[in-house]
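Good morning C.,

I know you're traveling, so I'll keep this short. The sequence:
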Amino acid sequence: MTKAHDPRPEPAALAAAIDPTDPAAILAGLIRCPSVTPQEGGALALLEGLLAPQDFAVARPVFSEAGTEPVENLFARLGDSGPHLVFAGHTDVVPPGNLGDWSHDPFAAEITGGEMIGRGAVDMKGGIAAFLAAAARHIRKHGAPRGQLSLLITGDEEGPAINGTPKLLDWAAARGERFDACLVGEPTNPDALGDMIKIGRRGSLSCEVRVAGVQGHVAYPQLADNPIPAAVEIAEALLATPLDAGTEIFQPSNLEITAIETGNASVNVIGARCSIFFNVRFNDLWTVETLKAELAERISKGAAAGRLRPGRPPALYELVWRERPSAAFSTKAETGTKGGALTDALVAAIAEKTGRRPQLSTSGGTSDARFIKDHCPVIEFGLVGKTMHMSNERVALSDLEGLTEIYEAFIARWFAANA
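The tokens, ready to paste straight into the viewer:
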């Protein structure tokens, strides 16, 4: 672990010293802004300092909601009319964790062995740096695109995602912004740059099943009702039958029980309650509503089979569905559609710069694309994600340059296809 780096200059001064076509310089500046969710940390100020001199109109709205911390966001647009391409991402990062697990200061952007080390290098300040540099290169070579080019950057994707992208999209729509296509710069590649484009995401639904019992002494079970056997029956009912076999573009839906808790640490006490926690990552064969109905039916059958004691009524339980479930979605890639033009432009750019044909995938977790899909076709492509959220998160400088070249080719191809 190296000693702490010197105090950072102000973001405006830092931006003035950065070549906007150099993704490594941009990324180093962003990493040095400690923007741990929900802190802005100077990252958005740095972006504004880089974009405004290139004639982007920049706004930094702040959104808040009761029970949450306010979050600063950024929207920048170049151009006033014509086809509108938006790049979306987030400057907030997860905490670095134990600093002793890092070989370098996580906010120093040290380079060693051809890699830049720092929190957010991959997820996803690297993607933002690459797109900014790609846009700047395109503008220097060809002038502003024939249309509108925007960046929609949030500050709470790694947090509750309440005061970021959803509200920023509504804010933009209220101002009359209409998007034709969106590229999200999340790290999508499992092994090498060009491996994978995300054309959709599975849905996510979480629930707690609270099974009620009657507390008592283990030596006098007739005076108590143990909720654990019923909870086990409910768990088995949830898992006994696969939800589906998957679809052409989605893997099978998967239910994972993540915890079974009683809150009872005593070995001679029958607990009064037992909770089952589970999450389902589901494909487009289900909606949130149809999946809830299926799970509720399974839970009901499990509770009926799991009577607390012989001769007693079925177990009583309560379902607590977690807030903000997300639905499965995919961006249609048929030729002649907006989604097809978006996907074709990126696939061609990747092939041109890497020689690879990327897999079109819906794997992985959720992202802010789940909000953007209600406004326009959206796909995701960024860096190799092997070190995201890890100690010594890092990006190869060759990958950073490679992604910049892909993004630059993509910008040119998308606007040419939508002229």
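Safe travels,
E.
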